[in-house]
Amino acid sequence: MQKPTKVPFDAQVYLEGAGPGKTILEFEKNKKIFEQGDVAETVFYLQKGRVKLTVLSEQGKEAVVAILEPGQFFGEGCMNGHKLRISTTTAMETCVVTSVTKAAMIAAVHDEPEFSELFMTYLLTRNSRIEEDLIDQLFNSSERRLARMLLLLANFGKEGAPQPISPHISQETLAEMIGTTRSRVSFFMNKFRKLGFIDYNGHIEVNSSLLSAVLHDKPVLKEDE
């Protein structure tokens, strides 16, 4: 008797559907998905919306460390032995996420090469981004850091056309992400608009001229600090 044909594993289908060890959750704007100090037992995959990742210091100072977009994992620290969450994640708009238990994640990584490759690619990409952010923070002025952040948020360098930046990302959030004040961000944003680098139409549209200015180190992006 012929053995039944095994259905090919599809990592995307796996991540977007409920099943053993997986739950689909929806969070409204400003709802916390998990908080710093919570028990870490699950990994999350963002299907829809944007999520803000923040860290609170012992002195009570909060910093935005990342803006997550669809297709990204978060909370994966539990896979590396973290018992508690080291950050807080908050929905910036209506979000749909897949919650995957640690056991289900380990099984999928172990049993399904396609899923393992997807997850490893994400981890390597995130690690490179963290290194780039650190270098940016150490060596670039706040103006250049803002320019780079706008390009990243608009998805320059990724497949497809650049995307408008969500109005949910405020100047205060941008200031927290690049380590400066809101007034400085406001000053630079007005400067970028006058130079034709960005447009305001309810959301922020980033033009390729900003990328050119960053890549070619044009003097309009002066070292202010």
What can you tell me about this protein's structure?
With 225 residues, the chain is an alpha+beta fold. Helices cover 37% and strands 21% of the residues. It has seven helices and ten strands. It has helices at residues 11-16, 102-111, 113-139, 142-153, 171-178, 182-194, 208-215; strands at 22-27, 32-34, 42-48, 51-56, 62-68, 73-74, 88-91, 95-101, 198-200, 204-206. It has a four-stranded antiparallel beta sheet. Strands 2-7-4-5 form a four-stranded antiparallel beta sheet. Strand 4 and strand 5 form a beta hairpin. Helix 4 (142-153) packs across helix 5 (171-178) and helix 5 packs across helix 6 (182-194). The chain is globular and about 55 Å long.
How is the topology of this model organized?
Layout: H1 11-16, E1 22-27, E2 32-34, E3 42-48, E4 51-56, E5 62-68, E6 73-74, E7 88-91, E8 95-101, H2 102-111, H3 113-139, H4 142-153, H5 171-178, H6 182-194, E9 198-200, E10 204-206, H7 208-215
Antiparallel strand pairs: 1-8, 2-7, 3-6, 3-8, 4-5, 4-7, 9-10
Helix pairs in contact: 2-3, 4-5, 5-6
Would you kindly provide a brief summary of this structure?
The chain has 225 residues and is α+β, with helices and mostly antiparallel strands. The protein has helices at residues 11-16, 102-111, 113-139, 142-153, 171-178, 182-194, 208-215; strands at residues 22-27, 32-34, 42-48, 51-56, 62-68, 73-74, 88-91, 95-101, 198-200, 204-206.
